Structure formats: C-alpha cells, structure tokens
Amino acid sequence: MGRERVVILPQGNHLLSLMTILRDSSTDCKKFAETAEKVGDKIISAALDMLPPQPTHVACPTGVTYEGVQESTPVCGVAILRAGASLENALRRGYTGPLSFGKMLIQRDETTCLPTLYYAKFPPQIGSQKVLILEPMLATGGSACAAIDGLKQRGVLEENIIFVNVLASESGVETLLSRFPGISLVTATIDKDLTSNNIISPGLGDFGDRFYGTDG
Q: What positions does the domain Phosphoribosyltransferase occupy (predicted)?
C-alpha cells in the first residue's frame, strides 16, 4: 500500500538516544526543543534527498572542475500549526534551493476526533512546487488527510507532497497511504499502538505543548 514511498530513518544509536530524550517525561522544554531540532535536521535531510537535483559544475581551489549537483526545485514547507512550525528552522537550514512557506491551522475535536481546517495561507505558486508538509505527530491521520485535501484543492499533486514527521502510529501511516497512495512520507520512527483516546503509544506526549512549554 505505497510502502515503497515511506522512508523511516535508520534506527541507529544516535537517533535512538535522541528519541529517548523526547519520550522521557522528565525532559524539560529547553532540552526537548533542542533535541527536537536535531531530529528535525535528520528527517528534513532525508526528505530533501527525495528531490531531484540539477547537475552543475564548479571550479575547485585546486583548479580542478568538480561535476556536482545543486538543489533547484522550488519547495514550499507547509506547517500544520502549531507543532509543525517547530520544523521550519530545520528546513531553512537544510535547503539551498528556492524556498517558501505556508501555514495550515487544523484542529481536532477531542470528542469526535474529526479535524476541521480553520485557516490556510500559501504562496500563489504552490500548485507548481514540491510541498513538504511539516507535522511532528501522525496519530489517526485525520488532520494529515485534511491538510492533503486542502493542498489538492489548490492544485498540488499527490506525487509532489512529502509528509515530514517525527513520530507516527502504524494505523496513521496506513490511513494516509490508503487515502493518498501517491504521496511520500518521511518519519523518524513508527509506534504500533494508539490509546483509547487515539494518542500514540508509547509516544512522547503532546509535542506542541512540550516544545513550546505550555504543558503546565
């Protein structure tokens, strides 16, 4: 079901140590944000590897010509607010080609778990760009599906969408790929379970609250 379009970061010791810090309930806001930025750099890099490069050549200080590549694909990073904004700096740091940003505010009803799109702002040329949806958590997939529906309504093709994610649930990934088989997904790791309240388990809690220090 489109699994060939899913990239899960190599589960090496360094990434596992970072994810352990994020999952630890005793990690304070400052440490959580610093660690999330490090994971963000890794998943953004993996997403950018999926974009086609343009061949180029440069003159090296030794006088030799080097046949390399450059990033030239127009990219729009679309953050699902508010947690998705935490990945914007990683994209700014990582991408050397033409870059713009969009925002979407999608909130889930805590009782019905159904998402509602309240706000969206995109660059006018988004229909011709590669779009990286920035969303740290993928639980049921409801908000992610609403975001993709909103982008498709504005002319963005599924094959031009990469969903960039820190932590996903197995069922959320299945939902997303069954609805939109043409998209790609990059995540740091996938947890198998959801709680009865549709929270990723073991998970890491509310990413936005922990990143911004609003978890009380």
A: 11-214
By mean pLDDT, which of 34-38, 90-94, 113-117 is the weakest? 113-117
Cβ neighbourhood burial of 198 (10 Å; 0-12, 13-18, 19+): middle
Catalytic one among 23, 24, 82, 108? Answer: 108
User: Is residue 112 annotated as part of the catalytic site, yes or no?
Assistant: yes
Let me know if 206 is a catalytic residue: yes
Q: Does 109 participate in catalysis according to the annotation?
A: no
Give pLDDT tens digits for 139-170.
988 899 999 999 999 999 999 999 999 999 99
Annotated catalytic residue within 111, 209, 214, 215: 209
Catalytic residue among 65, 112, 179, 187: 112
Secondary structure of residue 87 in the 3-state scheme: helix
Choosing among 3.40.50.2300, 3.30.70.3180, 3.40.50.2020, 2.130.10.10, the CATH entry for 3-51+73-212 is 3.40.50.2020
Q: Is 215 a catalytic site residue?
A: no
